[in-house]
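Obj.: predict assembly geometry.
Materials: sequence records (below).
Method: joint structure prediction, all chains together.
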Amino acid sequence: MPAQNRRSEKSRRAIYAAALALVGEVGYPRTTVEGIAARAGVGKQTIYRWWNSKADVLLEAFLDLTDGPEPPALPDTGDIAADLKAVLRATVDELTDPAFEIPARALTAEGVVNEEVGRIFVTRLLQPSLQLYVDRLRTAQEAGQIRPETDPRIALELFVSPLAQRWLQHTAPFSHEYTDTLVDYALHGLAPR
Amino acid sequence: MPAQNRRSEKSRRAIYAAALALVGEVGYPRTTVEGIAARAGVGKQTIYRWWNSKADVLLEAFLDLTDGPEPPALPDTGDIAADLKAVLRATVDELTDPAFEIPARALTAEGVVNEEVGRIFVTRLLQPSLQLYVDRLRTAQEAGQIRPETDPRIALELFVSPLAQRWLQHTAPFSHEYTDTLVDYALHGLAPR
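Observations (raw structure tokens):
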């Protein structure tokens, strides 16, 4: 890597770290490009050379922090219950990692009251992850493990949304045992068979 | 009602309205007892005579706006599917009523980043409503319509949390048809029977 690119890469990492730290500390409205630049030790023109706005910087900082622009597919061992449980257990661990949790809460809180910010981040960060569940549920439908008439985009909410609500609203604690239970309830139903 | 009580009741209503409007406009951190008093046209001592803090005023304003301190039980026609669908349809309507939605979003957003505020409002406002689902699901268990081994506190999340997430995070639109589908999926399960 040429020296110029190494310097750019170092600045980029410093800017991502500064953006995530700042939004976690002061919230989205009070996070500014100037503030990110000062914290990263770069000029604000360096930021504007690469990004158009603080929303853009934060978006890419989150993509870098989590799965990158193209997150990997969900596991497919042929057992939909086992695969969903494994993914949700990993999600429980991610949601309680402060490096992710603090900035993610700040951004989500802003999205609750600012529909435009909410839609940008949901579309770019959350929906690609949800699409992986849609894809995995479709494969399970083809394998006869999910009813053929089920809409996978709604079905995934039966286990993803309860965990999201416990995390966001502190309605109750969550654990691997809890997400396993969600998967069992969702697959087999609450009514007797 | 004596004139003194009528005046008090009128002040109380003005204070509730001012508190809900203000939190919707400026958010929880910038809502102050002084601001509520000014908007309601009362002295701040009037507020402190009845409540200890802005959190207390807002809590009672929300209780007054929604169901009151003891919300009524869920309907029980003997058909758990029909009863859950009716309640969730009414919730869809409430969530899209601006008188509820705007202050509720402001308070929920604060709860996401401020665990103490989140817990106060969830415990006092949200949990009593969720308990009604627990009670109704228990009756359904006694009637043989829900598996006896199911934990009702987790079971309710299969239909309540998806609606909450669509509302809070704008992940997708919601409608009466959508909440009906959630109830059907939750009761009968995603896997073939």
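Conclusions so far: Residues 142 and 148 of chain A are 8 Å apart (CA to CA).
To do: check interface contacts against the pulldown list.
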